[in-house]
Design a protein that fits this description.
The strands form 3 sheets. This protein has a 10-stranded mixed β-sheet. It has a 3-stranded antiparallel β-sheet with strand order 1-2-3. It contains 17 helices and 15 strands. The chain starts with a strand and ends with a helix. Strand 5, helix 4 and strand 6 form a beta-alpha-beta unit. It has about 475 residues and is an alpha/beta fold. The structure holds iron/sulfur cluster (2 copies). The site of one iron/sulfur cluster has 13 residues, from helix 15.
Amino acid sequence: MAKSIFHTSENQNTYLYDIRSRLSMLVHPDLKIAAEETGEVDSYYRGKYGYLKNCGFFKEGESVKFGEITESMIRDSLIHTPQITFETTDFCNLNCTYCSFGELYEGFDERNHKNIDIDFAKKLLRFVFNNRPESKKQKLLIGFYGGEPLFNGKFILQIVDFVDQLKKEKYIEVEYNITTNALLLHKYMDFFVKNRFRILISLDGNRKNHSYRSVRKDGNNSFDRVIENVDRMQYLYPVYFEKYVRFNAVLHDRNSVKEIQEFVYERYHKVSRIAPLVMVDLNKKNEVVAQKMYRNKLESEIDFQKEESELLPTVHEEFSVFKELIDFLKYYSLNYYVSNITSLLYETEKILPTSTCLPGQKKILLTTHGKLLPCERVNYKYTIGEIREDVVLNIPEITVRYKHYYHHVQKICQHCFLNRFCNNCMLQLKMLDQVDKKDFVCEHFCNDKGLMYKLYRVLSFLEKYPLDFFKIVENHVIL
Ligand code: SF4
Ligand code: SF4
C-alpha cells in the first residue's frame, strides 16, 4: 500500500498527502510529474521529490500494527459506562413504513407490547452507581428509547424517582434524554421541564415529508398531532425549548435535506439532524421497497447547496462534508498529534481495527427482554449480557467474541486506505457473520482511488470555507 498519494481539488489545486505522517501539502503539479516520471519537469521538482523521498515519503507503507483487546479493557469500559439507555417499551403508537422494528428489517427481538421490567432497570442502575466514583463532573446519561418511550411514561417517572434516591446515597450528576415521536408529549411536558430532559423529536419535515409516519390506530399521517404538541411546548416553555429540544429526521423519497431544514428552521428556529434510511439488516423480502425509499444524503445535500437559499450558512455545520472535515482535521491531519501527543513517542501506532466502541464505552442498552446491548443501532444478536437475579456480564466470553471479530476483520482492514481513520462500527457490517469466511468483504472498504476522492471532497470544501479550519480546531481538536 502506497504511503503518499497525490490528489486534486475542485479548483484544480494539487495536494500531496502522506498517510503515515498525516501530513497534507499543497504542491506544484510538476512534483507529481517528477514523482510519477510521466514527463519532463524543472530540476527543482526532481530535487524536491528526491528530498521528500529521503524524508520517508513515497515508500510502500508498512502494515498497520493493530492492538489487542483484553478482558480488563472490556471490564473497565462496562463498569464505567457513561450512559444507560432503556428500551422503555417495544410498542409504538405510530406505524412508520421504514421503522427499524418493522417489516423492512430483521435482527431484533419479537415486538409484542412488552414493557421493560422496572426491577431489571433498577438492578442495572444500582450496578452502575456502585461502580462509579462520586462526581459532579462526570455525568451519567440516562436515556429512554422505544418503541415509543412515552407509551410507558410511568416507567420514566419511576426511574427518575429511583435515581433521586440513589443520588442521596452517592452523588453522581445525572442527565436525562429521550427520543420521542411527540404524540404523547402534552402529558409529560411539565415533568420534562422540571427534570431538564433533553428531548429529541422525530419529525421528517412538512406534512408531505412526514407522511410515512402514520398513526397505528387509524393509519393517518401523525403530522398535525405532532406539530400541535411541539408548538404548545414551544409556546409554554420558550426558554427550555430553545435549549433542550432538538429534531431528528429520516431522509427518504418523500423529503429532501432542503425541505426538512426549511420546515424545521422556519417553524422552530432549529437545525435538524438528518439520518439516511438504514440499509443493514434488511429483510430480504422487502429489500426492494427499502431501496426505493432510500435517498442518498450527500446527493440531497449537494442539490440543496446548488440553490440560492438563505438558510445555507445556518445549516452549514450539519452537512456531511463539514462532519467529514472535522474527522479529517481531527484524525487524518497533523492536528491528530495535538490530542494524541503520546503517539509521537512510539515508532508504530497500536490501534484496534474499525472504530467499534468497546462494550459499554459509549453506552449500555437494556432491552424489554432483559438483554444488554452496546447500543440501539446494532443487531440484537450482539448482546453483551443480561439482567436476571443480578447483572450478568460474561466478560471472558465477550472478549473471545470481540477478539474473533477483530482477528478476522483486520485481515481486510490491513489493505484498506482508511485503516488508520476508519469510522465504521464492525457490528454494523453487513457480513460480520461471515467474517471468518473467504468471501467476507467490508462494504466500506476504501482503495487508493476512494481515499483520493475523499480527500478531493474534503479539501475542496475547505478551500471554499477556509474559516472552518479555525472553527474546527478550536471546537473539536483542542478540547
Ligand atoms: S454503533 Fe457500534 S460504535 Fe456506535 S455505539 Fe453502537 S456499538 Fe458502539
Ligand atoms: S472501512 Fe472497512 S475495511 Fe476499511 S478499515 Fe474500516 S472496517 Fe476495515
